[in-house]
Design brief:
Layout lengths: L3 E2 L2 H21 L5 E7 L3 H17 L2 E7 L5 H13 L5 E4 L9 H7 L11 H9 L7 H12 L8 E5 L6 H10 L3 E5 L6 H5 L4 E4 L17 E4 L3 E2 L5 E2 L4 H5 L4 E2 L6 H17 L6
Parallel strand pairs: 1-11, 2-3, 2-4, 5-6, 5-7, 7-8, 8-11
Antiparallel strand pairs: 9-10
Helix pairs in contact: 1-10, 2-10, 6-7, 6-10
The protein binds NADPH dihydro-nicotinamide-adenine-dinucleotide phosphate.
Length: 284
């Protein structure tokens, strides 16, 4: 079997066209979706992610502003900036680009963002709603993956999903979303024993380890759907995933490439969440 590609770039282009139209309609109702992005320091990867987010906002007609703070900014100053954005009624979404410098407590910062403007879906109130199965802002990467699966009508109910990685932003919420859709979910992490055996049970295998090509075709059950979240920079400067694509695609029914897979979808779902925030829908 050679897998069909789950092309996140193409799907995200389609979704952005739809959102462009939606934003035009909102503007006619005098609703102008606005995202504030806060960037601390000058980590090149963070800068490039932020640029991508600004560009995507521009394309869909969502306005955005970037607040750049120096690496030396104090936690208190950052919290005050967030408070200002929380109180600004023209701002619908607030995103603080992670990671933050070591002297700033990331959790404190996430807690400080109003849950109603938390378009990353990281605030504990929104995570709690996700656990409860309530309407909320879904964390963008798992939301993007779910949207990709749905776009191909890939069955989730009753399927075995194995998630490798248990981070708060990818692995954990991914498992919750699949569980909510009646998959049987197994989480794996760095202390998991018999990783390959568990992975081989997966109908849907989500790999979010941050380890270049850690999973190859020998971890993939014939016909499985393989989602590669990893973004690793190789020695030659190119990006690659956690999955060794060539061998995995021979076993999988569907597979995401890196780049042009999960990455573009993550940004696209951020826009979706910003529009949702502008419509005031997170409380529904
Ligand atoms: P983290 O580093 O926060 O988490 C990595 C997870 O992988 C941890 O749970 C860790 O286990 C697990 N892990 C590490 N090594 C092994 C191993 N040998 N066997 C089994 N499990 C292992 O990463 P993130 O979740 O933030 O990101 C994962 C990857 O996805 C990165 O490459 C990141 O760049 C990428 N990413 C891509 C996005 C996109 O839009 N495409 C968005 C966000 C992230 P333990 O908990 O035990 O340490």
């Amino acid at each position: 079997m050679t897998a069909e590609l789950l092309n996140g770039r193409e799907l995200s282009d389609e979704l952005k066209e739809e959102m462009k139209h939606e934003v035009e309609i909102l503007k006619q109702q005098n609703i102008h979706p606005h995202l504030t992005v806060i960037l601390v320091g000058d980590n090149p990867a963070s800068k490039s992610y932020v640029k991508g987010k600004e560009k995507a906002c521009d394309f869909t007609g969502i306005s955005s502003n970037l607040i750049e703070l120096p690496e030396s900014v104090s936690e208190q100053e950052l919290l005050q900036v967030i408070e200002g954005q929380n109180n600004d009624k023209d701002v619908h979404g607030i995103l603080v680009q992670l990671p933050l410098p070591d002297h700033i407590d990331e959790q404190k910062v996430i807690h400080a963002i109003s849950p109603l403007k938390d378009v990353d879906g990281f605030h504990p109130v929104n995570i709690g709603k996700l656990v409860n199965g309530e309407e909320t802002f879904l964390p963008c990467t798992p939301y993007g993956i779910l949207t990709m699966l749905e776009s191909k009508n890939i069955e989730i109910e009753g399927k075995r999903a194995v998630i490798i990685g248990r981070s708060n932003i990818v692995g954990k919420p991914m498992g919750l979303l699949l569980l909510e859709r009646n998959a049987t979910v197994t989480y794996c992490h760095s202390r998991t024993q018999n990783l390959r055996e568990l992975a081989l049970e997966a109908d849907i295998l989500v790999v979010a380890m941050g380890r270049e090509h850690a999973v190859d075709g020998s971890y993939v059950k014939e016909g499985a759907v393989v989602i590669d979240v990893g973004i690793n920079r190789m020695d030659n400067g190119k990006l690659t995933g956690d999955v060794e694509f060539e061998s995995a695609k021979e076993k999988a029914s569907y597979i995401t490439p890196v780049p042009r897979g999960v990455g573009p979808m993550t940004i696209t779902m951020l826009l979706k969440n910003t529009i949702k925030a502008a419509k005031g829908l997170s409380e529904k």
